[in-house]
Amino acid sequence: MLGYILQRLILLPITLFAIVLVNFVIINLAPGEPVYVSETRQAGVSVASPEDRYLQFREFFGLTLPLVYNDWPATSKRKMVSQLDLLKIHPEDMSAKRYSELRIEMSDKARFCLPQLLSIAKDPKLGFETRKLALYFFVRGATRFTEPKQQKENQEIAKNNAFLDSFRAHLPKTNEELSQQVTILSNWYKEHPEGLVFAPDSLKTAFLETRLAKYLKRTLSLDFGVTRTDPNRTVLDEVVSRLKISLTLSVLPMLATFVFCLVFGMCMAIYSKSLFDRGFDFLFLILWATPVFVVAPFLIEKVALHNNYPFTDIPFPIRGFSSEQSVFDQMTSWQRLLDIARHITLPLLTIFLGSLAVQTRLSRAIFLDCMGQDYVRTARAKGVPNSSLYWRHVGRNGAIPIITSVAGSLGVIIGGSVIIETIFEIHGFGKFFYDAILNRDYNVMMFSSLMGSFLALVGYLVADISYMALDPRVQLGAKA
User: Fold this and answer.
1) Cα angle 204, 208, 212; round to 5
2) Which of 108, 150, 309, 419 is close enough to 64 for a disulfide, judged by CB 3.0 to 4.6 Å?
3) Domains in the chain, ordered, with CATH?
4) pTM exceeds 0.90 for this model
5) Helix 396-408 vs helix 442-470: angle between axes, to the nearest 10 degrees?
C-alpha cells in the first residue's frame, strides 16, 4: 500500500498541472473584456492618462502577455508597419471595439518588439504618422512599472520612466523633431539593454514570458496574487479568512450525511417494500426535489421567526456566521462555540436535508443490490446472525461506493454554498468565489480551481485507502 500511496503522490502534481493548464486556458479565453478603463483607479496607479492607467492595470495583473507561447519578438517589421497603418485610420472609420483591440495588442507586444519599432521610427521612407506611432509604442514598451519586491531597482526604473515620459508629453510635430527624438532614444536603448532585449529565437522568451509561466512561477512560491478590486488584499489571506466558514458548512453536513445515509439506507433496504421503506422513500424524494432556495426561506419563516432555540429563550439567528464582532470578541471560548452553533444550525440543516435525500436513496439501492448477492445468501444459509450479516457482509461492502460518492464531494468544499451564504448573509468563500466570477477576478478563480482539484484528488486517495480498510480483498497497487 505504501508504494501505491507514493505513486499517487507523485502523480498528484502532474495531474494538478494538467488541470491548471486546462482551466487557465479556458478562463483566459472566455469572451469579454476582464478589465475596463473605469475600474483602473482601483489599482492605485498614479499615471495621468486613462489609457496608461488601463495598460498598467492589465500589466499589474499579468494580462499583457500571451497565454502559453510568446512569438511576439519574432514579429516582422513589415507586419508591424501594417498594424501601425491600421491605427492611423480614424477611430470613426472602424468599430470602436476593433480600434481598441488594435491599440491594446500593440501596447502589449511593444515590449517585445522594441528593435522593430525603433527601426520603423528611423525609416525615412515611411510616413510621418507611422513613424510617430512607432515612436509612441516604443516609449510605451520601454516603460517599466515599479514593484514593492524590487526596491533596489525601483529608483532606476522611476528615473528611466521619467525620461521616457518627457517624450510622450512632447510628441514630435515635424520630421526634424522626430529624427532628434529617435536618435536620443536609440542611444538610450543601447545603454539600457537589461530587461528590454528579447531574442526572437529564444526558447526562454517563448515559454517563460507567458501568462501561464508567470502564474506557475508565483504558484510554486505560494504567491496566488491579489484580488482585482483591491491590490492590497492577497487571495490567500481572503481565502484563509473564509475557509473556516466553508469547512464548517461543508464538512459537517458531509460527515453527518455519510452516517445517516448508511443508517437510513440499510433500514430501508432491510424493510424493503414495507410501509417504513415507502414512507421514507417518498419523504426523501420530496426533499431531493425541493431546492435549497425553497428550504432555507421555509425554515426561516416557520422555525426561526416563531420559535426560540431549544431549551433557551434565545431566538434563532437568521443571518451571519456569528454575532457581531464587537459582541463576539467579549465572549469566552465556550460562549463563542455556542454562538457559532446557534448561527449555523439552520444553514447546516438546509444543506444536510438536501444531501441526505440524495445519498440515502443511493445507499438504499446499493444495499439492496448487496443483499441480493450470492455471498449474502450463502452467509444467511450458514446461519450467520442478522447483525453480523448486515454489518460485516452488506454494510462494509455497500459502504465502498458510498465512500466514493462522498469523497468526490470533498472538492467542492472550497466553493462553499453560494445560495446558502446569500440567504443567511454569511461571508463565506462561496459568495466570494461567485463575485470573483462576475468580476472576472482571475487570481481568485484559478486558486479556487487549484484548491478544488487538490481536495478532490486527496478525497479520492482517502477513499482508496478506505476501500482496503473495509474490504481486505482490495490490494492497492497489486498487479493482476
Assistant:
1) 160
2) 108
3) 47-220 (no CATH), 235-470 (1.10.3720.10)
4) no
5) 170
